[in-house]
Amino acid sequence: MIPYTDFGGNGPELHFLHANGYPPACYLPLIDMLKERYHVTAMHLRPLWPGSNPKELGAWHPMSDDLLLFLEEQNLAPVIAVGHSIGAIVTLRAALRQPEKFRALVLIDPVLFPPRFIAAYNLLKASGLAYRLHPWILGALRRRRVFDDPETLFKSYRRKHVFRHFSDQNLRIYVNGISKPRAEGGYELAYSPEWEARIYFTSVWRDMDLWWGLPNLQVPTMIIRGAETDTFLSPTAHRVQKVNPAIFQETIRQATHLVALEKPVQVHQKIEWFLRIKLGQPGPPQDKEKR
Length: 291
Hints:
Layout: E1 4-8, E2 13-17, H1 28-34, E3 39-43, H2 61-73, E4 79-84, H3 86-97, E5 102-108, H4 115-126, H5 130-133, H6 135-141, E6 146-147, H7 150-158, H8 168-178, E7 179-181, E8 187-189, H9 193-201, H10 208-213, E9 221-226, H11 234-243, E10 248-252, H12 259-262, H13 264-279
Parallel strand pairs: 2-3, 2-4, 4-5, 5-9, 9-10
Antiparallel strand pairs: 1-3, 6-8, 7-8
Helix pairs in contact: 1-13, 2-3, 6-9, 7-8
């Protein structure tokens, strides 16, 4: 059985798929709001499977197979599917393969790049230099793995520019989500840097199938992006609009690629709005307290 977290909640089935390096517990502010109206489950990507080997992954495609199998194992389909970053791409590819398993898609800042970028990365990968030159791979492998306690990590991360749009509360939730106790004492990352680097290395290079499939995507779909994202860039958004005008696109200000963790209230509001329009789901309470 594929590992997963059942967050509970009542209502239609909603599946959430996390980003690279961000276990499902990092998204509690968003998930807690979603489970007020949906039953939320979250499959774990392979880096969180016990005993999984990064070297066995050559591309992201098998993880879409994992998602389709998971939906069968848990008898969830058809499901509302929300995914962030790689989770959005894994979800999109699964929906292109078996659209009948999905009622709607919400893709949060998907790792989707234009064909020219895909071609360029293929050349870099073929040269054998990707591990040495990819900035995210280098950053992952240099990441601090062991620390005294989550509070130490919080204080360190609070000073980092990448977390500038996180509230203190959401940053603490994120830090707790990426941490786990060590048998020897202290804490370590729940998501191995080797796996994180492998996910970056195996990205993009086989993604032309997404561009070939997008024009024929029939599942109601919305893309949410951060205005300051370095991933789902404006040219890509324009290209998606051109190949499939039926896909809704929403941009959230003062947010980056980590928009789902930075602005969970705004992301939740856009998800509810979209599902209300497309599926007739009830809207959120008007007096929802900001989180």
